[in-house]
Amino acid sequence: MGYHSILNNYCKNIYLIGSGNFWSDERETGDDKSILYRLYRTILFSTYAFVTILEIMAALFGEFPEDEASDSVTFAVSHTIVMIKIFSVVLNKELVRSMNQDMIKACEKYEEEAVVLETYRSVKINAISYFATVYGSAACFCFEGYRKMKAGSHFVTVVTFYPGFEDDSTSATMFRVFTTVVLFLMLMTMFLTVDSFTMAYLIMLKYKFITLRHYFERLRLEFDEINKSGNTRLAAEKLANGLVEGIVMHQELLKLGKNIDKAFGTVIAMQLCQSSGSAVSLLLQIALSDQLTFIASMKIIFFVLALFFLLGLFLCNAGEITYQASLLSDAIFYCGWHACPPLPPPHRNHQRLVRHACAQALRPPVMKAFKMIDLTYGTFLTVLRATYSVFALFYAQNK
Question: Does the pLDDT of residue 283 top 80, yes or no?
Answer without folding.
Answer: no
